[in-house]
Design brief:
Largest sheet: 6 strands, antiparallel
Radius of gyration: 15 Å
Oligomer: single chain
Strand content: 25-35%
Number of strands: 6
Number of helices: 4
Length: 142
């Protein structure tokens, strides 16, 4: 679901802003998009209500990213017994004019799949950002 729609309280809005800042700190050329999904019936049918989705766009096709845009989907699970909601992983996808060209999932083996992948340096930076994002959403408040 679009990050702009998920920012329903100060805590979530703050965490979403932290994610944007983490990404832009590592990748300053990226422009954030808190509404990466169109608001039409077909798209809404595909949107996961248990995710926070943020897009990032580069000024052109980035050679190190091998894409022009990146979509980050932060996936959540709420335990029915404890009611605790945790980030269980991230799905990150790179897109160019043809559509999706690579994907990274932190749920399984943290490897890139697709017809291309970001450079090793960018891939490692992205994985580090993913770790930080999971920390942001799973830190316990004292």
């Amino acid at each position: 679901m679009n990050a702009s729609e998920q920012a329903t309280n100060l805590e979530l809005a703050s965490k979403i802003a932290t994610v944007v800042n983490l990404f832009k700190f590592e990748f300053p050329d990226a422009k954030s998009d808190l509404k990466p999904w169109k608001n039409d019936p077909e798209t809404r049918e595909l949107v996961d209500p248990d995710s926070i989705d943020i897009g990032f766009h580069f000024p052109g096709v980035s050679k190190s990213w091998r894409s022009r845009s990146v979509l980050i989907q932060i996936r959540f699970y709420q335990d029915p017994m404890t009611k605790l909601r945790r980030a269980i992983g991230l799905e990150v996808a790179g897109f160019d004019h043809r559509g999706e060209v690579w994907r990274l999932s932190t749920v399984e083996n943290w490897s890139f799949v697709g017809e291309s992948a970001p450079s090793v340096e960018v891939g490692n930076q992205l994985k580090q950002v993913c770790r930080h994002i999971l920390d942001v959403f799973n830190q316990t408040s004292s």
